[in-house]
Amino acid sequence: MTPRIVAANLVVRFRMFRREYSAMFFTIAFPVVLVLVFGAIFTRPENMNFDLAVQDLDDSAQSRQLVDALAADGVFRTTPAPPDVDAVRYAQDHKRNLVLIIPRGYGEMHSLRLATGDPTASVAMSYIYDPSSTSVATKLQYLDSFVAAANQRLSGTPPFITMTKRSILDKQYRFIEFFVPGIIAMAVMTSCLSGALNMNAELRQKGILRKLATTPITSSDWLLSNILYQLALAVISTTMILLVSFAVFDVRLRIDGWLLLFIVLEVFAFVGIGMMLTPIAKEAESATAAANAILFPMMFLSGTFFPVEMMPGFLQTVAKVIPLYYINEGLRASMIFIDHMDAARHAAIIAGVAAAVFVIGARVTRWGRES
Amino acid sequence: MNKHTMTDSNDHAIEVEGLSKRYGDLVAVNNISFTVQKGEVFAFLGPNGAGKTTTVEIINTVRGPTSGSVRVLGMDVVKQRRDIIPRIGVMPQAFASFDRITVRESVQYYSRLFGRKDIDIDGLIELTNLTDKRDAQFRSLSGGLKQRLGIAIAMVNDPEVIFLDEPTTGLDPRARRAVWDILLGLKNRGKAVFLTTHYMEEAELLADTVAIIFRGAIVATGSPDALIERNANHLDVLLKSVDDRALDTIRRLGFEPIHDANGRVRFQVKDAGEVHTLLGAIIAAGATPSGLDVRKPNLEEVFLSLTGEGLHDTTPAAGCAT
Known about the structure:
In chain A, 65% of the residues lie in helices and 6% in strands. Chain A is built from 14 helices and 4 strands. Chain A has helices spanning 3-19, 21-42, 61-72, 87-93, 106-116, 136-155, 175-206, 208-212, 219-249, 257-277, 284-301, 313-319, 323-335, 340-364; strands spanning 50-56, 76-81, 98-102, 126-129. In chain A, helix 3 (61-72) links the parallel strand 1 and strand 2 (76-81). Chain B is α/β, with parallel strands linked by helices. Chain B has 12 helices and 14 strands. Chain B has helices at residues 2-10, 52-59, 81-84, 103-113, 121-127, 143-154, 173-188, 200-206, 224-231, 244-252, 272-284, 299-307; strands at 12-23, 26-37, 41-45, 67-72, 75-76, 88-91, 161-165, 192-197, 209-214, 217-222, 235-239, 258-259, 265-269, 293-295. Chain B has a 6-stranded mixed β-sheet with strand order 6-7-8-3-9-10, with helices on both faces. A 4-stranded antiparallel β-sheet of chain B has the order 2-1-4-5. Chain B has a 4-stranded antiparallel β-sheet with strand order 12-13-11-14. In chain B, strand 4 and strand 5 form a beta hairpin. In chain B, helix 4 (103-113) crosses helix 5, helix 6 runs parallel beside helix 7 and helix 10 (244-252) crosses helix 11 (272-284). Chain B is elongated and about 75 Å long. At the A-B interface, helix 1 and helix 8 of A face strand 6 and helix 4 of B.
């Protein structure tokens, strides 16, 4: 291992990085875009505006009040459907997945119930819905709770059961806070794995490895250069992700030695896995395919985008053999839950994996010299 | 006696003895032996697939031999790889550097790998006529410029032996000449140069010694002149147009004229004296020898007479080019 050679490699790698915009995009901009997109989708579900078509067949003061109340809740964005059309037809023609129908006589019954408390004075409201639409179920839940609240108010007595909630965590955390550590782990993994694979395939294909084989560079110089380079990229992309999620979504996560340790371990693990695969993926095309074949299942099965607990039982078992799962869990333990014991447990598992793949990777890197 | 042998082997840049390389059943290099003196340009001439690259890669320590011994500057290529590497410079076949790295940065990078701070990077760039391209990225260079950069990089550690594997393959004639000019400059610097090529012109122009390799074996070694002398010791006579009287005269003198595709008549004579006799006889017969051309045979013909095949029309035989 020669520091001079490692330094020379790093200079060249960073020059190449600076001059290749697509590499820069995937390292820095892509994870930031993911944070922005997912953050925008999931940060404030209370502000989600759902379209709700309302066909007011009654057209009384009371029914109009009801429509206003639906809109005033901030959940629904109501649009009136003309009373003289068939509601099913209307839903189909206007691509509405939910149409609420206020029946004739609603106002009358409402007044009667208010005035006399007569329990037989009731209204049967109906809705037309499209079961194939994914947002309908959520909309119906909101609608149910709206109706329940309206009924409760109309009964004139205070509710019997009220609820207060307490989180098991010290602090309420939002989806975006869960998401950011996952994106950090994913960005570092992608960069290390495809970086190691593509660089090697490119050098081999172009014949640069054949030239390097006639210079004093050794495979340990090469490995160390790769690790340091990927580590620098990982620090850059992690910093970008944390800055953007703080600036845009006010995400405040614990940043301490654990974060650095997990990044270092992840770089070793995935540069190691990349090196293990280089003898298989000799051409640039097969390198990309090999990288994707590993990256995508890892991303989706390891709890990067959603908690592993949301997945079916057997997939949860699968998740537990994926190295990225332990990085995700470890990062969340240290950054969100501030659980040092849990972080240490995951760090130990990743350290074991990293050591194993690194040793195997170093052994299979034959570095252009052939027998 | 002992002392004499020592001096002898000290003058050898490369000693190859009984070298063979097999890939399974395929014999790429079959029991070859030769020596390259310090300061000489040694050309390994042969068609594609003859075993040239395999041999170079064994000598410059990238590949291991199956059997035989190879010494570079007195050191064994298998056991003393680490000691050999800093003292040799290699331009592999189809040399390439990093796409987005400039000429100067590439030379600098390799000089750092060798840890040679004393090397004049700009001097090397000038030597290979790349000064006005020093800030151009590798991907923007033409084939000839890439090869010249490869030569500059091969010299980045001031090596005692330089290996150039097919330095002009795929270049147009102008770019090829430009590379040759640089190689002639190298020759004047007293470096041992090991050159592989399938262009006989290149070997004839640059080499002090030529070894002809065919199907993994060396079929002849010597200076270009000596090889021609030994294997094609005649003159080629060409006549543009001849009438029947002249043709009769030629036949009567015992020569065997053949008509070539361009309507010319071609035959071989032993020496200049025979040319003289022949011309006298033709003129005496009242005919005019027009478009007379007398040529010395070249390495192409040496190759043809040794192998029965042309240098460029052979299909790759045993061995592989990579």
